[in-house]
From TrEMBL:
The chain crosses the membrane at residues 216-233, 253-271, 297-316, 342-360, 372-395, 444-464. It comes from the Eukaryota. This is RUB1 protein. One of its GO terms (molecular function) is monoatomic ion channel activity.
């Protein structure tokens, strides 16, 4: 940089030395200005990494500018956020003190002061920042958005939730805050009152109807598939009907047309993701992000199953028969000697039916209990898969070993025969008569006994223990994972919603209206009010700090008498200072005794120590 300054100033000065001196002077002035203007009392307090120092530095700020003192520091045309500085430098105790100070409601005789609006206006991506760099601050942030009344009425208390910036951004569209929390995937955060109520509010008043409308056509398609493949299925030994053939053909063609349209839509979405760079790289292979969603993969698999059904469609295979005017076959018949194609078609039909019902499990999002149960089932399936993998390894090990033994059991000759027999033994389906035949060969009998012990005693009990432990660990966060699933559905639905309809939903929330604290006490706007049972949370003190005296915005708040909890470092420093003072006192006592002081002074000295 100095070289660049020298080259730029060299034409304006007599020599290189003068240009170098002038450039260094300019750099010095710039750095001095940055240090002087940027070193505010708040920034100095943050550098000490002491929560108490930050609170004391903020306390001297005027009440009207207190929020901006911890959110913005300007140096020329550049600004820096002390809050972000504390987070990026790892001084999370200072950042927590700033968050708590901003989200503390203070009131004088004229107006309420609440830093929520200033925080989200200055840092609309604060939740994303915390998810990435300071997850421990999320609870402090969300707790600051809740106010609970100290007073109760009819067994309930008022609760104000300031969720405006979790629902909408500054432009009035859906805020990405919920999407960031979904990506963070913390069930405890999703179970927090603020996030849970925000999700339920958007779901019940907006997203549920949109989701149900999107699922309506899928349910109709499932009904058409069931009728065409099960009810109108061609039955052997029953006389075919012209009306049934026509209905079957129309319904199946409708399914195939829908599958081709779905395939085109999926290809378009994948191409759009690749074009916009929304891909994940596994080694050197780039995979679109839609392929990481199990539901999207299931829809793609269902589309390909329907296309394969179209390829093996018996009606089309018999088209040469029923299109012939002199043919004896009915229109759209399947009885033309294509039994092999019908067999393959029925297999893909069964697979398609299973995929249809599995994809319909999305509707469990309407119930938290059903959604939580489904998630638990998916969680324990992993343990079952590990059990089956271990069992497969055990079967292959013993089947290959048994096929290597020399024996006279003709019915158990070959490795594949042993694989089938051991599989039946593992699941308790092996005939007892065949097992008695193995007793004639001692080595075979010993191997089978060892396999049975390992498969049914060891592996089965291990599976039970794993399922019990997995369920117990999942049970604590079961509701949180269910809420996380619902929030993901809400985010996906809102991504496709029309802005006009979302704006209409926002108007029903009345987020611009001021909320009442207690009766007749209007506070800040930007939230909604609910009532919760009085025994759900114990509130002994009003969280609003009320002050008398002057009400001018330029006057700082009076000193806060609340006791600030000391950090571990501050407690250790306090103990160290007390020990140092006691050491000095004991040294003074030793010197006084050594010089022949009277013993009568000892009690007063001991009293000093006790003080």
């Amino acid at each position: 940089m100095v070289q660049a300054y020298c080259e730029a100033i060299e034409d304006l000065c007599n020599g290189e030395a003068a240009a170098f001196r002038w450039s260094l002077t300019l750099i010095t002035k710039i750095l001095t200005r940055v240090i002087l203007e940027g070193s505010t009392v708040v920034m100095k307090a943050i550098n000490t990494n002491q929560e108490l120092a930050v609170r004391q530095a903020v306390a001297v700020a005027p009440r009207g500018k207190r929020a901006m003192r911890v959110l913005s520091v300007s140096v020329g045309t550049q600004t820096i956020s002390p809050l972000y500085w504390a987070i990026d430098s790892g001084r999370l105790s200072c950042a927590k003190a700033i968050i708590e100070d901003l989200l503390t409601i203070r009131a004088d005789r004229d107006v309420y002061y609440y830093g929520c609006e200033a925080l989200f206006t200055r840092h609309p991506e604060i939740v994303q920042k915390m998810c990435m760099s300071a997850p421990s601050l999320l609870i402090a942030l969300l707790d600051g958005l809740v106010w609970r009344s100290r007073l109760t009425k009819d067994g309930s208390r008022r609760v104000n939730l300031y969720i405006k910036h979790l629902v909408q951004d500054s432009a009035g569209v859906f805020s990405p805050t919920l999407q960031w929390l979904v990506r963070y995937k913390d069930p405890k955060i999703m179970s927090h009152l603020v996030v849970a109520l925000t999700t339920d509010l958007i779901w019940s008043r907006f997203a549920a109807f949109q989701f149900l409308r999107n699922k309506f056509w899928f349910v109709i398609t499932l009904g058409v598939f069931f009728v065409s493949q099960s009810i109108l299925k061609e039955q052997t030994g029953v006389e075919e009907s012209f009306e049934a053939n026509v209905a079957r053909f129309v319904l199946r063609m409708w399914l195939y047309l829908a599958s081709l349209c779905g395939l085109c839509s999926f290809v378009r979405d994948v191409a759009s993701e690749i074009y916009r760079g929304k891909v994940m790289r596994i080694s050197i292979v780039a995979i679109p992000k839609s392929f990481t969603d199990v539901k999207q993969v299931g829809r793609l698999a269902l589309t390909w199953v329907l296309i394969l059904m179209l390829f093996f469609e018996p009606i089309l295979r018999c088209s040469s028969k029923w299109t012939d005017s002199h043919s004896q076959y009915l229109l759209f018949t399947t009885r033309c000697g294509v039994e092999e194609e019908i067999r393959m078609y029925s297999i893909f039909s069964a697979i398609g039916m299973v995929l249809f019902w599995l994809l319909l499990t999305d509707c469990t999002v309407f119930s938290m209990r059903l959604s939580a149960f489904l998630l638990v089932c998916g969680w324990v399936v992993v343990e079952v898969g590990l059990f089956l993998l271990a069992l497969t390894f055990l079967i292959l090990t013993f089947s290959t070993a048994l096929s290597s033994l020399q024996h006279n059991l003709v019915e158990f000759d070959g490795a594949m025969t042993w694989v089938s027999a051991l599989t039946q033994m593992a699941f308790g389906m092996f005939p007892a008569s065949d097992f008695d035949a193995t007793k004639k060969d001692l080595p075979i009998f010993i191997c089978l006994t060892l396999f049975t012990a390992l498969a049914t005693v060891f592996l089965m009990n291990l599976l039970i223990a794993q399922l019990a432990e997995s369920y117990s660990s999942m049970f604590a966060d079961m509701t949180g994972f269910a809420r996380l699933n619902r929030a993901g559905v809400v985010v996906s639905v809102l991504a496709e919603a029309r802005p006009a309809r979302f704006a209409k939903f926002l108007r029903t929330l009345n987020l611009e209206d001021r909320l009442e604290f207690n009766e007749g006490d209007l506070g800040p706007a930007g939230g909604i009010q609910i009532h919760e049972p009085a025994n759900e949370h114990t509130v002994t003190e009003d969280s609003i700090l009320r002050y008398g005296g002057p009400t001018a915005p330029s006057v700082p708040w009076p000193e806060d008498d609340r006791k600030v909890e000391e950090s571990v470092e501050e407690k250790l420093q306090h103990v160290e200072n007390r020990l140092a003072s006691m050491e000095k006192l004991l040294t003074k006592m030793a010197k006084s005794k050594g010089t022949g002081d009277s013993p009568s002074k000892a009690p007063s000295t001991c009293s000093d120590i006790s003080q």
